[in-house]
Amino acid sequence: MSTAMSPKLAAVGDRTGPQSFLVSEILSAAGVSLPAGSPGVGVTAADIVVPAVPDANRTQAQWKTDRPVGVNDTVIIESVITRVAGGRIERHIRLRDEAGTILESGTETWILDDPAAAVSTPELDFCSAEWGNLLSDSLEDDRGFTSSLSTWDGTIGLRCGDRELHLRVYKGNIIDVTRRVPHGATFTFVAPAHTWVDLVLSDADDFMRRAISGEFSSTGDGYEYLRLTKPLNMIIAHARLIARKADS
C-alpha cells in the first residue's frame, strides 16, 4: 500500500492500495476483536488500513454495504481522493473481493486545519462552474464537436456526485455554462466522483468501453443521451485534455 498522504501534496487522484488483506489479521494486528457476523466489520477494517488525512478532521462519512464483509473474508482495500476544494478533501474508499466485486464502499469529507495546505485545481474539480468554463473553452475550437451538434438545440447536463453543470448548446456552440437552465437539461450524464477520477486521469481513454458496459447512468431524455454518445465522448476527451494541462 502507498504511504500516507501529506496535505501539502494532496490532489485529486491520490490513491492508497489496492492491497489484499485477510480481515481477521487486520483486526488482530489493531487489537480489535469482533465476533463472526458482527455488523461494521468492513468499515472497521477500512478505518484501520486507510491512513487518516494528516492535520485534518473527518467531518462526514457515508457508507454503503452491498454484501457485508465478514471477519474471515479476504478483501482488497483502496482509496482515492475525488475532490480538493476550499480546505476540504473528499475521499472514496472501497472494499472488493478477490473477483473484483465491490462489497462495501464509502465517501469521506475531511476539513484541513490549514485550508491552504491543499490547493484546489479547477481542472480537476469536476462539474464545478470553473471546470465547466475551462471545458467550454477547450471544446470551442473542436470542429468535430461543433459539427456533431450542428443541428442540435438543447442542454447537456453533467453530474459528479451532488454537483451538476449544464452546457447550453445551440447549433454546435456552447452558449452558456450554468448550474441550471429554466426547463432543465435535455439529458444529464451521471457518474460518481470516483468514476470521474478514473475517466479523466486513467492512462487509457476508455469512455466508450465503460459506456457500453453500463457504468454510467442518465436522467432526462434517454433517446438523446444515447444518440449523443459521440459528443459525450468528446466532452470526456476534453476533460482529460485540460486535466493534463494542469499537470504539465
Structural class call reads alpha+beta
Give the strand order of the largest sheet, numbering strands 1, 2, ... along the chain.
1-3-4-5-2
Give me the number of helical elements.
Answer: 8
Low-confidence stretches: 1-8
* Average pLDDT number: 92
Count of separate structural domains: 2
Strand runs, count: 10
Shape: elongated
Gap from first CA to last CA: 26 Å
Molecular structure report:
- The chain has 248 residues and is an alpha+beta fold.
- Helix content is 30%, strand content 33%.
- The protein has 8 helices and 10 strands.
- The strands form 2 sheets. A 5-stranded antiparallel beta sheet has the order 1-3-4-5-2, sandwiched between helices.
- Strand 4 (88-96) and strand 5 form a beta hairpin.
- Helix 3 (129-140) crosses helix 8.
- The chain is elongated and about 65 Å long.
- 35% of the residues are buried.
